[in-house]
Structure formats: structure tokens, C-alpha cells
Amino acid sequence: MKPDSVFKKAFNRTLQLVEAGDVDIGATSENALRARIGVSRTTVRKVLSELDARGITQATGKRPRAGKPILKSDYFPDPETTSKRQHVEEQFMEWMLRGDTQPGTLINELQLARQFGVATNGIREFLIRFSRFGLIEKKQNSGWLFKGFTEEYALELFEIRVMFELRSAVLFSELPDDSPFWTELAELKTAHQQLLLEIGRRFHDFSRLDNRLHRLINRAAPNRFIDDFYEVITLIFHYHYQWNKKDELQRNEAAIREHLAYIDALSSGDAHEIERACLRHMTSARTTLVRSIDGAG
Amino acid sequence: MKPDSVFKKAFNRTLQLVEAGDVDIGATSENALRARIGVSRTTVRKVLSELDARGITQATGKRPRAGKPILKSDYFPDPETTSKRQHVEEQFMEWMLRGDTQPGTLINELQLARQFGVATNGIREFLIRFSRFGLIEKKQNSGWLFKGFTEEYALELFEIRVMFELRSAVLFSELPDDSPFWTELAELKTAHQQLLLEIGRRFHDFSRLDNRLHRLINRAAPNRFIDDFYEVITLIFHYHYQWNKKDELQRNEAAIREHLAYIDALSSGDAHEIERACLRHMTSARTTLVRSIDGAG
DNA sequence: GGCTTGCATATTACTTATAAAAAACAACTT
DNA sequence: AAGTTGTTTTTTATAAGTAATATGCAAGCC
Q: Which molecular-function annotation in GO is an example for this chain (chains A, B) (predicted)?
């Protein structure tokens, strides 16, 4: 049976939009709402009829009208709004990164399936998807081998990352002066400066800026393989840093300064300067990752 | 139900070994045979009892002894010895590359499953595995989009390939003089020269040499992400060239000469020369691929 | 004619089931 | 004691089945 997490998420999202006054149910067509939420009309209709069933709207005659106010308890709990796939990812990452899973461990589909409460198929699909992260390896007609989230892994990851980043940075700096990317870069610079001022309170926001900057640079001359690789980096960082909070403020503050230097170098168009600034940032990011791996293991 | 293709392949392999006089069933332990064929002992025992059941061996008392001679008809037909997974790959590649499938086509799991005669699960697993080749893309809660085996694809592929190859070539050339890799390189050079002499008859053998050379170069300083990427290249070339035979002899002859120049450059240790030879080979390989895409589409 | 909703159909995201194959265990043989 | 075979248990590779979701088509409305 397929879970109804799509519906539940859509329902929650609709409640949000209504509460925020962003959407007037009575005046919005099914199709407009569909586009807004990003699901099919079938799901939107299910949401509308649920709203009705709960008395949050009243479908007297044609158009629904506001009924009962929306309560916190009307929202579906978060875990019910995410797909099994998402659950598996989260639980696997936790098992791997936090569970002190040793390099060389054999991964057992059946056991993970029981442990995570899903069918083996879901585990297998996840593992296939995950295998491109270079951390696991399939053994023919047998299980999977966990190769370990090791220093070696981090170094290999960064070797590629540096190559890609340097390539993209140079291409970015060669964009014509009237390219809209320069405007975006300027905006990002401001956002960095702003964050630096409020670093004490908002240091968590750095990872979003980090992502935006690197994605922007890669967008100047897109290459699907580089994009894919960047997804690897994003996921690794997402989970790894989520559980390694040590010195986060200082690390992020330093990284912001590196970003600012990098942004200035890009604007300058001086290839040598770009390489220097880029490498400095990459090196410190690598050091941070390697250090946190050592610390964790 | 799980197919018994592993057993059938193991059975055929055993017949081969016995026919070649490589293995004496009577004198070989189950475990030794297992190691030789690369399957579990369970499967080996199944093979042995099938041999017995057919009278190819006679298990009078303890050790089996030779019985009837082995006939061609004793072998299982090839298609029964490959896994469903392999079938799906082959059929999908054919559908995609030869079926004139247009960029933008939506891939329907159910339809492919029916077309290929497998369960949807198998299709889905294949597509997930295949998605890292950058040719298809998942649409959330919906099907997959075929992005097209286009010139743009080939160019993006080669942009990365050139970066990786240059990196590995330089690292290779810096190996110490007594590294065993130099011996391997020398052997490969001889093999190339040999093939050049017999190019008229054996030009198909080039792709194997091509693979060996590039893998050797990458092995000097391994990086799992580069290895993975090379698998993408290998698969693309494997299928694409399988169906594009135009000018194959001339293309391969030219490529062999490029390889020889590349090998010499590597041995010389002259970074500039290496870059030149490497780029020349990469450029001509790219041209070949792009041309055959245009020709096919 | 374009936009709406109602309805029917197709496809996906799962779960459960099963034979094949691998792995683990035990008993036996040199 | 190490290697062999017999037996049992576990795990994988696949198929079949099902509710949720997406998609397509038709009819109605401004």
C-alpha cells in the first residue's frame, strides 16, 4: 500500500497558506492551488474535501467558505508527511554516521529493513541510489560493503571538488560584464556581510549561503556531472555537520570571510587571485571535514 | 521467484572447465570448484548433482567419475544464464540508443516493465542505477525524463573526462622509476604495436586495449569518484560503438597511434608533451562520439 | 475559447510472498 | 587440526498485489 504522505504534506501546506492569508480557498481554483503546492489535482481535491469534512471550510452551494478556525492540532504530525524514502535516508545516515559503524561492515538489506520498518525493496532502492556517494559497494549476489566515512574518503571527495570548483570559478569570472550572474553575486556578497554582523545569533544560516554561492558559481557554465557531484557534497555536509556542532560559530565565521575574499577575487577577474582565494577556502573546508571525521571516529 | 541464472551460468562454466581439461571433477573438492567459479557452495552442489543426474558424471560410491561425454546441447542457452538485471540493461540501452528515442520522452516504468517482460521493481532499480549516467532524471511522484543522448551530453561528458585524464596522466608520469606500473605500460605499448600490425583482422580488439590503458593510468593515483565516472564512459562507449560500426577500422587505427604517442609522452615525463598527447587523443575521441551521435539522430 | 470541475484510467510508491543462492553450522574424514 | 561434505538458516533477486497519486478526457460555465 502506498502511504498518503503526499496528501498529508499538501494538507499541512494548505493550512499554512490559509493561515498566512496567502490563499483564499473560496477564490482559488483547484488548478491554481495545485500549481501552488506542487501536487496533482487529485491530491488537491482530497485536501479540499478533508478541509470540508473537518468543518474548516463549508461547501454550501458552490464555493467553499471559511468555517472553524484552524488549530495547531489540525496539522498532521511531521513524520507522517515524509515519504518512506526520506525516512530510510535519514535513518541510514544516522546508522552510518552516528552509530559508529565501522569500515568493512557488511550491510544486510533484510536487517536494515526490519530495523527501519520498511520493505527490503525500499532499502535496496535507497542503497542503489546511495552507492554513487562512494561510501558503499555492492558485492555480487550478496550484500553491500560499507567502505567507511574515513579521512581517505574526505580527501578523495575534495580532490574532485577542488578541480570542479577551480574550473567553474575561472569560467564564472570570464562572464560578460552585463551577465545577471554578477548581480546575483553582489546580492550574495551583501548577504554574507549581513550575516557576519549578526553571526552570534544566526551562524546556522551559513550553510544555506554556502550552498547558494557554490551553486551560483557552477551555474555559470553548467555541467550535469558537476551538478551531480555537488549533490554528493551537499548531502555529506548536511548530515555530517548536523551532528558535529563543535566550534560551529568560529568555523562559520572564518568561512564567511573566505567567501568574501573569494567573491572579491571573482569580481576582480584576476585568474591568479581567484585560484588563491578558491584554494584557501577549499583547503580550510577540507581541514574542517577531516578534523570532524577524526573526532567522531 | 528468483531465476536460476547463477546456477545455469555456473553449470556452463563447469562444463567448459571439464572439457578444457582444466578441472577433474573426481579430484576437485566442492570448495575448490566454488572458488574457481565464484559462486557459493550451494550452487556448486547443485551443479554437481545436475551433472550426475544427466550422467555426465557417475557418483558410484564416494567420488564422481566421468560418464557420458559432454555435448553442445548440454550447455544452457546463453539468455538463461544472465540475470534479469542484465537483460533490462541491454533492452533499455537498445530502446534508448537504437529505438530513436527522442530527448524529452517520458519514461513509463509500467510500460517498460511490460515491454521487457519484468516486474516494475526491476525497471525502477535499473533506472535508479542508470540515473547517474546523466541521461535521465526523476520527476517527483511521477516518471522519468529522458534528456537525450545528445551532442551536449557528449560535450559535458568529455569536459569531465579531459579533466580527470589530464590529472591522472600527470600523476602517472610522476611515479618513481621502479614502479611496476611502468612495466605494465611497456606491455601495453607492445600490445598496441602488435595490434597495429594485425589491424585489418583484429580492429575490434581495440576497445579492450583502450580500457586497459585508461584504467592503468587511473590506477596510479586512485580516486573512487574518477573510477565511478570511468564506468559511465565505459558503458556509454560499449553500447554506442556496438551499434555504430562506420569507419571502425580507420577510427581504431588512428586511436592506436594516438595511444602510442600518449604512452611515449607519459614515459618521457615531459608535462607539456603529456598534455599535448592526452588532449589530442581526447579531442579525437570526442569528435568521433559527437559525429556518431549526429549520424544516428 | 479558455478555464473550471467531475469522472475514469494509468502510474507510482509501496508491501508481501517465494524460490534461488549464500552463509553458517555441524558432523565426518582423513 | 584442517579440509571435506551434509544440513539448516539467512539473505537476495525477483514477481505479484494494492492504495495513493497523477494524468487524461469529457462536460459545463463564463
A: DNA-binding transcription factor activity
Q: Give the range of the structural domain holding residue B11, as residue numbers without chain letter.
A: 5-80
Which domain-ending residue is among B80, B113, B133? B80
Q: Of B7, B224, B229, B232, which to mutate for an interface test with A (greatest number of A Cβ within 10 Å)?
A: B224
pLDDT under 50 in chain A at which residues?
A: 297
- List the nucleotides on chain D closer than 7 A to a protein CB: 3-8, 10-24
Give distance CA B42 / C1' C25 (Å). 14
Task: Return the H-helix or E-strand segment holding A145.
Answer: strand A144-146
Which tens digits make up the pLDDT trace of B186-210? 999 999 999 999 998 998 899 999 9
CA distance B285 to B297: 19
User: Do B76 and B88 have their domain in common?
Assistant: no
In chain A, residues with a C-beta closer than 8 Å to the C-beta of B127 are none
Q: Is the separation of the CB atoms in B217 and B174 below 8 Å?
A: no
- Residue A256 is part of a domain; what is its CATH number? 1.20.120.530
**B42 or A59, greater pLDDT:** B42
Q: How far is B44 from chain A (nearest CA, A)?
A: 15
| H or E segment to which residue A58 belongs | strand A57-58
Cell for A168?
A: 567553474
Note the pLDDT of residue A63: 73
> Are B135 and B166 within one domain?
no
